[in-house]
Amino acid sequence: xxxxxxxxxxxxxxxxxxxxxxxxxxxxxxxxxxxxxxxxxxxxxxxxxxxxxxxxxxxxxxxxxxxxxxxxxxxxxxxxxxxxxxxxxxxxxxxxxxxxxxxxxxxxxxxxxxxxxxxx
Length: 120
What we know:
Layout: H1 2-33, H2 43-80, H3 85-119
């Protein structure tokens, strides 16, 4: 079984390596055929865009994790005390909405950074 896994891993590495070479050759042929307008960024702009993209991704992951934890804890509490389920549902929804609002705010700020850096 281990032999098949190593064989598949080696085949995937070869496939990835050859795809890059083929893509580079296609790009050279396209550039020679029709000149494209250049879109250049400075090093600082590229770093800012990368950091903003990473921040947006982390905000989405963190928000999703937080909302899942809120839901899981509420379900646990409802399972332990079914008579209090109605009293727990409202605060759970409000808390999840606040976390989601913070997550969206962080993602919008990151998007604005990306748009600002590309407009410069």
